[in-house]
């Protein structure tokens, strides 16, 4: 996500300096937008960057940052101007810069394979050449990055739902109840059919959104919001149904479906909540009136 932003909006020097190592994953990066006091209302961010000579002095905090404490670079949305989105600029900050520090690792119900922490900036000096795009362009860059991020999150739900269906198909075939396999029950068959339909329709809309984003189609933003909304909501239901069909075994950590359930619940929040996705889609529809 960060690499795509730098590759799209960065200078040739920035692309040369950062993208090569990000592509090979010799270095990894975190996207820093959310703050303790601004989540869905991202344009209300208060982390500030004051320009002094050839550098910016950054102060503030970012919250719920994926990979924080284990990544090498941060793309940080900061306030360089007045209130609102036009006062936001994006800076590329090396985590080794003095003044960058972290809060404790958050204790989450899922996504425990990567750390999530608060990132603090205390008089962090950032060279002006690390400005991504132009001053005042940061909010637009952040939103552009989120379009791809929404496809990524929807795809995570796809993978978890796919495996959940494969697992529950095997389980309901092997598990006997009332002298017959569970999948001989018509209710179970209908439930499996609904789950498979949700999986297929979600995959189609994710692919459509990805194609639109790659081709810079005018409806790409709306499609990315649609795919994130539809896939994360419907596929969480698929995984929840798979857990239910496992019965009590689905609630045991020895069965993978419980982890899929815990890991994908946050997908309805990450990269923009489902409620915000509704807003984006509706906004796109109404602008054509």
Report on the architecture of this protein.
With 289 residues, this protein is α+β, with helices and mostly antiparallel strands. Helix content is 46%, strand content 19%. The chain has helices at 2-9, 12-23, 138-174, 186-214, 220-245, 257-265, 274-286, and strands at residues 29-32, 48-52, 55-66, 73-79, 88-94, 100-102, 116-127, 131-132, 176-177, 180-181. The strands form 3 sheets. A 4-stranded mixed sheet has the order 1-4-5-8. The chain has a 4-stranded antiparallel sheet with strand order 2-3-7-6, with no helix packed on it. A hairpin with a 2-residue loop joins strand 2 and strand 3. The protein is elongated. The model has no long low-confidence stretch (mean pLDDT 95).
Q: Quick recap of the structure?
A:
This protein has 289 residues and is α+β, with helices and mostly antiparallel strands. The chain contains seven helices and ten strands.
What key attributes describe this structure?
four-stranded mixed beta sheet, single chain, about 20% strand, four-stranded antiparallel beta sheet, about 290 residues, elongated, alpha+beta
Largest sheet: 4 strands, mixed
Number of helices: 7
Q: Roughly how many Å is the radius of gyration?
A: 22 Å
Report the end-to-end length measured between terminal Cα atoms: 33 Å
The low-confidence runs, each spanning 5 or more residues with pLDDT under 50, are none
What is the helix/strand order? HHEEEEEEEEHEEHHHH
Helix/strand structural class:
alpha+beta
Mean pLDDT: 95
Number of beta-strand segments: 10
């Amino acid at each position: 996500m960060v690499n795509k932003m730098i590759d799209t909006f960065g200078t040739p020097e920035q692309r040369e300096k950062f993208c090569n190592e990000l592509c090979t994953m010799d270095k990894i990066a975190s996207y820093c937008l959310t703050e303790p006091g601004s989540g869905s209302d991202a344009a209300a961010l208060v982390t500030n960057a004051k320009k002094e000579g050839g550098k910016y002095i950054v102060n503030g905090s970012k919250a719920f940052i994926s990979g924080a404490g284990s990544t090498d670079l941060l793309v940080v949305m900061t306030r360089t101007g007045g209130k609102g989105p036009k006062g936001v600029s994006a800076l590329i900050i090396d985590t080794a810069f003095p003044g960058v520090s972290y809060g404790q690792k958050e204790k989450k119900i899922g996504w425990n394979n990567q750390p999530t922490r608060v990132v603090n900036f205390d008089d962090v000096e950032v060279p002006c050449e690390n400005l991504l795009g132009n001053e005042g362009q940061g909010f637009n860059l952040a939103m552009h990055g989120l379009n791809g991020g929404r496809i990524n999150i929807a795809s995570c739900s796809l993978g978890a739902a796919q495996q959940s269906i494969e697992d529950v198909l095997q389980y309901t075939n092997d598990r006997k109840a009332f002298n017959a396999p569970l999948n001989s029950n018509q209710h179970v068959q209908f439930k499996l059919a609904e789950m498979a339909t949700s999986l297929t329709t979600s995959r189609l809309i994710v692919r459509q959104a990805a194609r639109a984003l790659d081709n810079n189609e005018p409806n790409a933003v709306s499609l990315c919001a649609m795919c994130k909304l539809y896939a994360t909501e419907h596929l969480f239901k698929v995984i929840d149904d798979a857990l239910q069909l496992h019965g009590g075994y689905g609630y045991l950590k020895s069965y993978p479906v419980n982890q899929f359930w815990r890991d994908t619940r946050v997908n309805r929040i990450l990269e923009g909540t489902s409620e915000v996705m509704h807003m984006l889609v509706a906004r796109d529809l109404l602008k054509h009136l």
